[in-house]
Amino acid sequence: MRMWEEELTRRSLLRLGLASAAVAAIPRPLRRVAHAATTTPRLLVAFFADGGWDVTQVLDPHDPADATDGVDVDVPESVTGIPPSVLATVGGITYVSNPVARPAVDTFFAKWAGRTAVVNGINTRSTSHDQSRQLVLTGYLDPTKADFAVMAANHNGPDLPLPHLQLSGPSYSGPFAGLSSRVGGQLAEALAFDDIPSHSNPGSHQRGVSRVGEQAIRRALASVRAADSGGILAGRLAQFDEANVRGDKLVALADALPDGFGTGTELATALGTAFRAGMTTSVTVNTVGGFDTHSDNQDQNGRWDELFGFLDEFVTALAAQPGVGGGSLLDQTTIVYCSEFGRSPQLNGSNGKDHHPWTSMLFIGKGVHGGTTFGRTDGSQEGVKTSFATGRPDDTGLVIDVTNVVAGIVTLMGANAGDYLPTVKPFTAMIA
Known about the structure:
By secondary structure, this protein is α/β, with parallel strands linked by helices. The protein has a single domain (about 40-185, about 260-420), classed as Alkaline Phosphatase, subunit A, CATH 3.40.720. The protein contains 13 helices and 15 strands. It has helices spanning about 10-25, 75-80, 105-110, 130-140, 150-155, 185-190, 210-225, 230-235, 235-255, 265-275, 300-320, 400-410, 415-420; strands spanning about 45-50, 85-90, 95, 115-125, 165, 180, 195, 205-210, 280-290, 335-340, 340-345, 355, 360-365, 370-375, 400. A hairpin with a 7-residue loop joins strand 7 and strand 8 (about 205-210). The longest helix has 22 residues, at about 300-320. The chain starts with 9 loop residues before the first helix and ends in a 12-residue tail after the last helix. The model is unreliable at about 1-40, about 185-195 and about 255-260 (pLDDT under 50).
């Protein structure tokens, strides 16, 4: 299983450490404020399931035994040899269960339904992979807009070394590009570290920046000096020193992390280290994909089982770790799991499902109104009008749009959604 596109390693984090230190030396337009250790943290992990998942397999409950409701849940048993799915309710969450094909789903909800909320009937407005990724994460088809993980980082940790850490998967930084760092890529190559013998002890090694990276840093510093007037540069020395300290912390953190991750437990442990060290507040990661099943829709079973198996490990490990300044890490972390869109309500001629502009999202952890499913889809698997306050079907309500959900996530993370998505009504029913 591809755990994510770019492996998080000591070397890649070291590269990011230098990048953060160099970029932070350039003044930001926003006033820098010391991060108060007493502040109750709002941490976010945004998981993205690539390909467009079939939510009728788990999250959007339509009775598999009802052949009249217009929604096909299973590929027939005569084709797959897998018994039909059934509806199950655990801890207030009603979902689609198949212990033979998707046992990890039942395991997860048996343990974590009380900390979990599901929002169904979300209109993505597109069936294009690229467009829908952007819509689901930002609410807009506008390159100047940031995604909800980056907006959360801007609100909760703009002064941290890596406010938003993009391990893998899609992300849109919008006007907050300086807050978001992606592991690997051309920046990593330009700012690569090399091990060189220590000048004081040839038997040991120290990290030196590459020649390309040194040139880039020199150009950045030269541009700041050129713009200096009235002693402004001298006033930035404290900021530059602070940047160096943050860079040193990143190096220390990188040394403490394992070389790679293969399980939800290992990812949660590594992110816990980063959160408690005050390195980051918001993370985007893609741990499972392959949901684009235009044929053989039974392949969705394996994807869902991988997803919930990984998620169970991840949530369990968060709950077992100390949080920032007390409590458990799960009590301080909100998990959002989404995909770019759903699959069509009925099977096609190849026993697959095509793109469908309606989806669901999964919420777990801090601030989540757990044990509840919000929103609903009809026999065409399209969202019905819903009360944004209660999340229940309401003819006087509105159809849930991705923009409303993004605004709701921003609200969930403690920010004023109007500062980021003006005129958009947040969907807030999933907030405790």
